[in-house]
Amino acid sequence: MTLEQTSLDQQQSLITHSDQLPDFFLTAQAEAAAQWDSLELPIIERMRYKKWPLFTQTITSTRTRQPANPLDDVTLDLLSNDEVAARIIHYGNETYLDYIAQDLTDKGVIIQDLFTALVDHPALVQKHLFSTLAPLEDKINAYHTAYMNGGLFIYIPKNVEIKLPIETVLVQDSRDELAFNKHILIVSEQNSQLTYLERSATVGDHANSATLLTEVVASAGAQVKFVAMDALGESTCAFVRRHGITYDDANIEWAAAAMNQGNTILDTYTELKGQGSASNTNIISIANGKQTQMVNTGLLNVGHHSAANIFQHGVILDQARLSFNGIGQIVKDAKGADAQQESRLMMLSQESRGDTNPILYIDEFEVTAGHAASVGQVDPEQLYYLMSRGLSQTDAEYLLIRGFLGQVIQTIPSMQIRQQMVEMIDNKLQLFHPGNL
């Protein structure tokens, strides 16, 4: 693969050091820098994380990365071989536009480093940036705004349908102390369509924090598929926050594999503002070792006949803790709205801990809503059946886990990414059953 030298070095273009960037952003960043440490952490039900080291304040590095080519072995492992509409690589503080199809540019599609977009398209970015994640809403948002050191802006004009996915690779450089605070802004205008694929990983084992914040704006009739494979390293303490808003007849489909090795909070939230809008959130997670993972998923039905679904399945190994919050809220006058959720956890260790927390807030009569939740061990009858057919206990457990997580995996549009998700599952299980898979 040949890298096009569209390289944007964030150490040269950080907004804190640039007079070219618009006043609205510089003001937001200055206010966040002054207030973040005094703000409260966001409240996550059944989760205490006040002592987590989430606030690394080093955002530039003097290290010259070796090798200089961002397409090193780690990055190549993350890249798909599928045909894509565009590919962007974030490596530490650097952003590379590897490829963008010419027809996208001709149609007015914008795919840029966020800081570059702030300079080139200030009014357009200002219209949408922070529309779902207010900088001073809480300590996470404020810190992230103050110490942001990378990002991406994707803009799809009205009536433009992108058939191939837009692929982003986020590689955290943890060979030194360096925060990893990336902000992704995706704007899909009226009746447009796109699929966004995101994968993350860590190089090095220095203890660092990561705040990965994403905003998705789906205008009337827009169709957005957001697929993420989170695989940050064991020494990374992460807060991953993805918030979206849907207008009339728009749809956001979230699919995520929460496979980070370190302590992580994954917060996904969608406001269904428009009439007839919809959103499905599909998440799988495996927690292993001594890590703690919290998957916090919320849906807010505002529009008439809006429909929202949460589907979360997770597996817990070793001494890990994994928790699922499913929060559905139907506001007053959201007539005909529907909110459904399912959260299930499978525990393979007596020392593991898991809990599911289904929550429904309903302020309207003419609606439908429901929830299902469970925490339990592998079904002994299913295990016995498979072992009676000659499988070892390890292989039988593996098949049951694959089936348990498979419903989410099948929602992924790329066969190669589905296979990579399976490999990530295998890697986690290999640590639990070394040498047996």
Can you put this structure into words, describing what you see?
There is one protein chain. The protein has a domain at 7-274. The protein is built from ten helices and 20 strands. The protein has helices spanning 10-13, 23-35, 73-78, 102-106, 114-120, 122-128, 139-146, 380-388, 393-409, 415-432, and strands spanning 7-9, 86-91, 94-100, 110-113, 151-156, 166-173, 180-188, 193-203, 208-218, 223-230, 236-246, 251-258, 264-272, 278-287, 292-301, 307-316, 321-330, 338-347, 353-362, 368-377. Strands 1-3-2-6-8-10-12-14-16-18-20 form an eleven-stranded mixed β-sheet. α2 (23-35) packs across α7 (139-146).
The parts where pLDDT drops under 50 for at least 5 residues are 1-17
Indicate the radius of gyration in whole angstroms: 21 Å
β-strand percent reads 35-45%
C-alpha termini separation: 32 Å
String of helices and strands: EHHHEEHEHHHEEEEEEEEEEEEEEEEHHH
Mean pLDDT: 90
Major β-sheet, in short? 11 strands, mixed
**Helix fraction bin:** 10-25%
Structural class: alpha/beta
Tally the beta strands.
20
Shape designation: globular
Strand order of the largest sheet: 1-3-2-6-8-10-12-14-16-18-20
Counting H and I runs of at least 4 residues, what is the number of helices?
A: 10
